[in-house]
Amino acid sequence: MTDAQLTQVREVARRVAESRPLVHAITNYVSVDLVARGLLAAGASPIMAHSPEEAPEIAARAGALVLNIGTYQASWLEAMVAAGQAANAAGVPVVFDPVGAGFTKARNRAVETLLSQVKVAIVRGNAGEIGYLAGLPPRVQGVDSLAAGDLSYAREAATEAARRWHTVAAATGPVDMVSDGRRLVEVHAGHPRLTEIPGSGCLASALAGATAAVEGDPLGAAVAALRWLGEAGAAAARLSPGPGTFPDALLDQLHAWPQRHPALKDALQLYVIVDGRTPAAVLRAALAGGATCVQFREKMLDVGPALDAASRAQAICREAGVPFIVNDRVDWALALNADGVHLGQSDMPAGAARRLLGPGKIIGVSAHNPAEALAAEAVGADYLGVGPMYATTTKADAALPVGPARVAQVRSATALPLVGIGGIAPGKAAAVIEAGAQGVAVINAILGVPDPDSAAQTLLAEVRSALHTAFENTSKGDGLR
Length: 481
What we know:
- The protein has about 475 residues and is of the alpha/beta class.
- The protein has two domains: about 5-260, UDP-N-acetylmuramoyl-L-alanine:D-glutamate ligase, CATH 3.40.1190; about 265-475, TIM Barrel, CATH 3.20.20.70.
- It is about 50% helix and about 15% strand.
- It is elongated, with a radius of gyration of 25 Å.
- The chain starts with a helix and ends in a 7-residue tail after the last helix.
């Protein structure tokens, strides 16, 4: 998924949190608690009403209706059909989870009854269940898919089910396949631990209801829900030691992900590194010129004076609305309640820092090669610093310059935002961006010149011009629609 698509997904997720849509879920009792808590964590408002006497009235007033036959009972079918038809009449999107489709005759009859009598906007199931809807040979065992990992089967299942039932079909698995019969989107997100807890698929369907309530394109809504859950699941797995604690971590991440540094790439465009001796007037000038992020790196002062200086710099950054990052020292970041921390390879591991700082803080890691980049991404880094790009005199222990080509190497291994660092001056920033970075980190190019304001403006203009060119070259034809 491209950066443009990921931005769209985050926007859909944020609209859920902002509008708090009412999601009416007639769902199975094994997962009803996870579904309710998950919808609340995502920002939606769940209601579970199974009675035929009130289900249609509630469905017509909801933002979305979710039907799930996981613990199938014939008595529920009447309520599901009535609620679905009421939702259709009111223009409320319906999401259907055909749990176990293809396994028993009773379930198959229920599936066909619902799909023939209710217009479904999105049907979400595992590849085996969606394969049954597509008319492919059934590949299910109970509620589990026997087609997991067969990507060609999943692609065909999603596409043919969508065509056959005139809906958006999402076949979920190691790679989720979402199709409206014409378009096919592959969603690469998630973690195997999602398969170790009951109800993660039910939660995916419910989340699709929440996104469908705010996104008019059912394909975009389904993709947003699956990417949202997948990203939250991957982050939760990094923070959770096992399946016992995983559901709680998953809910935390569902809540945090839409707002977690939504504009981080933008904030990394012009990343200025200061220390305890940087004059306040110089920092203010750099911010006035457009510095988008500030890192406090101090190696000389004692702890007390260093923290005092950091606190003053942070106050200036807060006034400007710019993230304030502490270099190396997680304890300082905690003491200051800084926006995040940047860690070198010999500092505290990023996973440990994440556990201390929590999900809402920014964690950057210096990565000198693709292996280090992958390792940092696996334990929860939000961005990577790559360098030194060019020769630098501001870091005594700096390695030999590696040039923008190293950015391209690291970019090939990770989708995390990258910041080039080391000896970058006007005229040298564009090459770093063209190689795949989202920003540049500088010291002397801004702080060591007579006019930091103008220097910042010049560098930021160069970065943004290069970013615009890169976007134009790579995003044509991209997007969820």
